[in-house]
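pasting for ref
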Amino acid sequence: MTHGLLVGLAALGGMIAILAMARLARVRPVFRPLVGPFAGSTGAVLGLLLFGGGRFPDSGWLSLVFLVPFLMLLVRGTVLAFQALFRRRQGAAPPSLLGSVISVLAYGVGLGAIAHHWFGLELTPFLATSAVVGAVVGLAMQDVLGNLFAGIALHTEAPFRVGDWVRVGDRDGRIDQVSWRALRLQTWDGDTLTVPNNDVARHAILNYSMPRAHHFPQFTAEFLPTLAASNPLGIKGAGEAGATGAPPAIMHAILDALRPTGVERIDMPATSLRVWESLKGRQKKSGPSSDES
């Protein structure tokens, strides 16, 4: 009776813990990778209490049902802790490449520990054989491994980011993607250029998108007031600034239209009466026309 009560309370607590983790992941999306492993680990503990009597299974293969969720939770928690530490020290999110490398190393160590302790596998011969195989594979994959480690170095130093305009050697372009193997650039002509990370690490990198203080031009601000000649105080009306060009253009257009009649000057405002008076005044100066005579 007491054991059943404890199992029921454990199941209730496990369900509450899973719901709390799901709620936390919804509020803080950074914790979403932990939801699945946490639920699996909680389910493994509940299964151990319900069907195993609280004892860990003796079978190595059955133990994987309980060990794998805990390993996934541990690895993803380690990656999240590394990302938080990197963000606090560098002030920016770490590259995804570093997180992938840490995950691979952690999974390798965890699976090796499980194979040694729960399956009784001796890892020393395996490590010796893997060293020889690693040397052969390393010689055969020099370029791939060189690009990989060069990519890790570039991600660690972070001399550029996605979206920056850079010059790598004699090649210019905007960074579209930084992967395990290569750097993908979009050139000024809109073409896609893929540069291996090994080549990027061997050449000088000029980042146009990361100006420094000494790049800022020096300038001196001065005021050169000019007094208006139209009044003794030299005051200018700010309201006339927007209409400075329009009135002369309109007056010259009217004058161009009246010039064939002999009108050489017309002053503002160009009202209908003033235009009519200009025409009549010109006619009076020129005398009667030939038809009237």
